[in-house]
Amino acid sequence: MRGLEIVVLVGVLVFVGGVLGPRLRVPAPLVQLALGVVVGFVPGLGDVELPPEVVLFLFLPALLYWESLNTSLREARANMRVITLQAVGLVLVTTATVAVAAHWLGLSWPMAWVLGAVLAPTDATAVAAVAGRLPRRVSTMLRAESLINDGTALALYAVAVGIAVGELEIGPGGVALRLLFSYAGGIAVGLAVAGLVVLVRRRLHDVRLENVLGVLTPFLAYLPAEQLHASGVVSVVVCGLALTQVPATLIRAHTRVQSRAFWGLTSYLLNGSLFVLVGLQLHVVVDGRTGAELLSGTRAALLVALVVILTRLAWGNTTPYVIRALDRRPAQRLRRVGFRQRQPLAWAGFRGAVSLAAALAIPATDAEGEPLAGRDLVLLVTFGVIVVTLVVQGLSLPAVVRWARLPDDPGEGQEHRLAQQEAALAALAALETRAAELRVPDTVVARLRADFDDRLHSLEVAGHLLDGAEEDGDRDAVEAAATERRLRLALLQDKRRAVSRLRREHRIDDLVLVRIQSQLDAEEVRLSGVVEED
Predict the structure, then answer these.
(1) In sequence order, which residues have a C-beta less than 8 Å from that of residue 427 and are 6 or more positions away?
(2) 481: confidence class by pLDDT, cuts 50, 70, 90
């Protein structure tokens, strides 16, 4: 099929899956996956092959960057031990358990380790689809794990493939050094790119160019790290998290509004496209294989999927007790959760497009030009495990979340209200100064002060802002309203500084800051647009 036809086909399936999902009460990604499987067997439509480099060098950096921008660095730091255990320790253990099972199924040890590395990481796109339903702490741990574990798994994968094709000889010590360099190099590149982006942004005054830079940022972080044989995944994540900490005043409101709208739509399209493309690959994976091969591959996939799921469940329900035995500090005791509350994190182990792309990227021949034994079985098992985890765990996760009875997080709502209150108080404190600078009439200042007082009272009582008064139709009222808008625009900067100070003092979360900034940005765009028209 031609490229344009493929794009249209995938887009239509993403749209249809998004429409049918809520109606069927099934997660949209699963519907999109099923549609891809069905369409893949339609004559003339099933010749779509997913180039691995498209996933690894186009989809992955963009999706990881957007997810990192929406991940709380404060919450991630607070749960760094658990995240590290999941993103590094669990990946290593899963690679080992899958390798043992695969070797028992008949794969050579090198190819068994390749399969283990392929299936070790969870899928960031699938995780993002469910993380929003979870409390902040669990959601952050799940997001951060899915962001980082790709880096661990892909580093192991590169070593395992090199050994399997006969191009690399390395021991456990060499693997450890490669992992260390992969992370250290990725962190260094990510921080360097974030610093460079900040320097360039300070000199840009064009909204379009600023957003072009924003689109390029994940790729500027990913590609150099990969060229240095470091982790492009870690580089993108570190770059994104670092950029969440820059002052709000560095980026203009118009830029942020356009950027968030762009990335919100783009991430949805990329996520849906990945699930559709994964479904379309079933035809490619099973094409030309005998019934006996497919039956054997299905049995192997079911066994390996069971190993993957049980490994994660065992890890999630044993490491907490090890931590409890080793760390008895009061602060650690306060962070303990019960058995039920651990299960959503332990059950959310979806595999997806990254695993499939890695499997498809395995060379067809070894260093001597001979067919690489076991590659077909790895492809079949990988696809089977992806489908099993997405269907079994994806459909049952809402029930697991309900059974877990996760406690509400009142702190997030309180922080949100605190940010709104502090922003309003900062505006009130600066009202007289700003009014004098702009020579605003006392009547406008009094009306605006009354409005802020009403907003503060509303926050204290009901936790939300009251709507402002409507404009009158006469000329004097219109001019007064325009002057009032100018004053409101000037006060927005004071609000932003107040909210940023709360974040620096760790009194509000990063995600609370993002939401407040979005509100302030929307208000600035609305007000400035009307002022320019006046």
Answers:
(1) 452, 491, 494, 495
(2) low
The DSSP string of 375-410 is HHHHHHHHHHHHHHIIIIIHHHHHHHHHHHTPPP-H
Q: Hey, is 501 helix, strand or coil?
A: helix
Pair of tokens at residue 416: 């949100």
The answer for residues whose C-beta is within 8 angstroms of residue 11's C-beta and 6 or more apart is 269, 273
Tokens of 34: 């099923």
Place of tokens 């998004």: 18
CA 416/CA 292 separation, integer angstroms:
59
* Per-residue burial over 76-105, b = 16 or more CB atoms within 10 Å of its CB, e = otherwise: bebbeebbebbbbebbbbbbebbbebbbeb
Tens digits of per-residue pLDDT, 454-473? 667 666 654 433 333 444 44
Report which residue type is found at 210: E
User: What is the rounded CA–CA span in Å between residue 112 and residue 502?
Assistant: 50
Neighbours of 529 (CB within 10 A): 12
pTM of the model: 0.80
> Packing angle between helix 60-69 and helix 232-243, nearest 10 degrees?
30
In angstroms and rounded to an integer, the radius of gyration of the C-alpha atoms of the chain is 26
C-alpha 290/C-alpha 376 separation (Å) is 12
What is the residue type of 126? A
Residue from 235, 267, 260, 32 nearest 147 by CA: 235
Contact 409, 136 (CB under 8 A): yes
Q: pLDDT tens digits for 108-137?
A: 999 999 999 999 998 877 776 666 667 778
What's the CA gap between 414 and 50, in Å, rounded?
Answer: 46
Give the list of residues 6+ apart from residue 464 with CB closer than 8 angstroms, or none.
Answer: 458
DSSP run (H or E) holding 526:
helix 510-533
